Amino acid sequence: MNNNFFNDLQGKINQALESSPAKDIERNVKAMMTQGFSKLDLVTREEFDIQAQVLAKTRSRLEALELRVVELESRLLAQSAAAPAEPAPTIITPPNLDKQ
What we know:
By secondary structure, this protein is mainly α. The protein has helices at residues 2-18, 21-39, 45-82.
C-alpha cells in the first residue's frame, strides 16, 4: 500500500511539473541556448571523437613512415660505405698546338 502511495505521488508530481510554467521556461531556455550555440563554431562530441581517432591514426602512420625513412637512409649510407671507391677520372689534355 505504501509503495502504491509513493508511485501515485511521484506520478502526480511529474504530471504537475510537466504542466507547470517551469517546464515551459526550461524548454524556452533550451531553445535559446541551442540557437546561441548554433551561431558559435562548435562541434559535437561525436565529431570531436572521430577527429581525435583520425589524428591518432595519422600520427601512428607518420611515426611508422619516419622510422622507415631512417631505416632506408641507414641502408643507403651502409651501401655507399661498403661500395668500393671509384677511381678519379683521368683527364687527358690535348697537346699545345701554339708552340709549333
